[in-house]
């Protein structure tokens, strides 16, 4: 399947859309603003290559150089923590276009997938659904929602007495949010062991409280009354349209943490239900664009949500210096059945704006002088996208390792050869390497 899909993608891009297949280098220099890189020593003392995380900078430079429609099936390398959907080396379809906007990229990808979609699978419909990052988080608690699952998060903050909750839930303050997730007629599956597992998951979300209720025998009313006061409990019951036999999960805490907790439990409880032969997920393939991501996030310091080359949304430019966390970026992700299969953005094509963003992120612009110099010559507006993990999902495989030849383990090891391995003292001398035994 992988060979057939990639062949059709090449065919579509070259024959139908006049793209040029250009191979870019794998050995590059270490640059800031992305994932952890693999470092490659050289025989020149103190000089190192890095393996490219993606062709990001090369393809932008190609746009500056006049290649207005580029693609390649690119090999990428990232020294990241182990996950079932990641490998230290992987292949992605990489695309970049000049004089294009977000809708143009989305339209291209939708037509590309329609053209290359395997005939043995159910056909997909275009245009794909579209949702903002804010709406995705508010309704599903994740920016990668699986729309095959019918349950949505409900915001109860406006009908909750937070001063009462502060006392009953022993909250640090009353600046909290209250969210609910209802599973109609599923209370019998919310067993003690499942509740214990969910409580353990809740421990990963700092200062977030989880309440798990089974709508049975009116005992739940007393629990809600105790938490919220009688009048509020009745309002919540009516607002959520609670029925006998329902299961309800309540998360109380900081907005993002409460939403992410329920987003996690939405998938976990669905898996529990389906393990009990309940059919919850629909059979249709659900493809969804997520847009309007925050340009920045803050974790000890300001960081790019994706990478520092993403163009800010024009409507938000006034906030760039005064309130950067309010600024949204022209980034877009494509989600298939709850997994990201593509991500891209419209790029910054103005050298002064790029310098400003790098300065805000405390990134040494000398590390990216080649990019900044190229932008000063006059870069066209351009954007792109990269597609990966698609074949894994098309094959309904549990791990990306099941659809590639010679995969690495979760620890990043090659079980066939034993790599990574030690090297001889002669090679260490040649490459000026000194190792420290722990």
UniProtKB/TrEMBL annotation:
The keyword ATP-binding applies. GO terms for cellular component: mitochondrion. Residues 1-407 form the Aminoacyl-transfer RNA synthetases class-II family profile domain. GO terms for biological process: aspartyl-tRNA aminoacylation. SUPFAM superfamilies: Class II aaRS and biotin synthetases, GAD domain-like. Keywords: Aminoacyl-tRNA synthetase, ATP-binding, Ligase, Nucleotide-binding, Protein biosynthesis. This is Aspartyl-trna mitochondrial.
């Amino acid at each position: 399947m992988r060979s057939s899909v990639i062949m059709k993608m090449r065919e579509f891009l070259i024959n139908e859309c006049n793209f040029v297949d250009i191979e870019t280098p794998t050995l590059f220099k270490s640059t800031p603003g992305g994932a952890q890189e693999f470092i490659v020593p050289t025989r020149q003392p103190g000089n190192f290559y890095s393996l490219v995380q993606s062709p990001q900078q090369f393809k932008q430079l190609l746009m500056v150089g006049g290649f207005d429609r580029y693609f390649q099936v690119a090999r990428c390398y990232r020294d990241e923590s182990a996950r079932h959907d990641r490998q230290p080396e992987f292949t992605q379809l990489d695309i970049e276009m000049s004089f294009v906007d977000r809708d143009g990229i989305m339209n291209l990808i939708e037509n590309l997938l329609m053209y290359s979609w395997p005939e043995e699978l159910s056909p997909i419909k275009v245009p794909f659904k579209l949702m903002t990052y804010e709406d995705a988080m508010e309704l599903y608690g994740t920016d990668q929602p699986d729309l095959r699952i019918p349950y949505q998060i409900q915001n109860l903050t406006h009908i909750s007495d937070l001063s009462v909750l502060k006392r009953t839930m022993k909250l640090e303050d009353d600046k909290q949010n209250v969210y609910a997730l209802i599973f109609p007629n599923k209370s019998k599956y919310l067993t003690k062991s499942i509740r214990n597992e969910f409580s353990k998951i809740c421990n990963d979300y700092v200062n977030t409280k989880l309440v798990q209720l089974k709508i049975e025998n009116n005992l739940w009313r007393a629990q809600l009354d105790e938490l919220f006061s009688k009048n509020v409990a009745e309002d919540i019951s009516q607002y959520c349209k609670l029925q006998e036999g329902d299961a309800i999960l309540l998360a109380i805490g900081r907005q993002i943490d409460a939403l992410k907790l329920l987003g996690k439990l939405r998938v976990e409880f669905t898996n529990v239900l389906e393990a009990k032969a309940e059919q919850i997920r629909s059979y249709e393939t659900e493809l969804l664009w997520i847009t309007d991501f925050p340009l920045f996030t803050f974790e000890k310091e300001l960081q790019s949500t994706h990478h520092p080359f993403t163009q800010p949304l024009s409507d938000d430019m006034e906030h760039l210096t005064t309130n950067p966390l309010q600024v949204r970026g022209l980034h877009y992700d494509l989600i298939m059945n709850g997994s990201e299969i593509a991500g891209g953005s419209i790029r910054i094509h103005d050298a002064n704006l790029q310098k400003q963003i790098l300065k805000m992120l405390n990134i040494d612009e000398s590390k990216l002088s080649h990019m900044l110099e190229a932008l000063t010559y006059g870069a066209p507006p351009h954007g792109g996208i990269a597609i990966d993990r698609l074949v894994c999902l098309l094959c309904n495989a549990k791990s990306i390792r099941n659809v590639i030849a010679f995969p690495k383990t979760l620890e990043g090891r090659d079980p066939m050869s034993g790599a990574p391995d030690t090297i001889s003292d002669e090679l260490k001398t040649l490459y000026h390497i000194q190792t420290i035994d722990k």
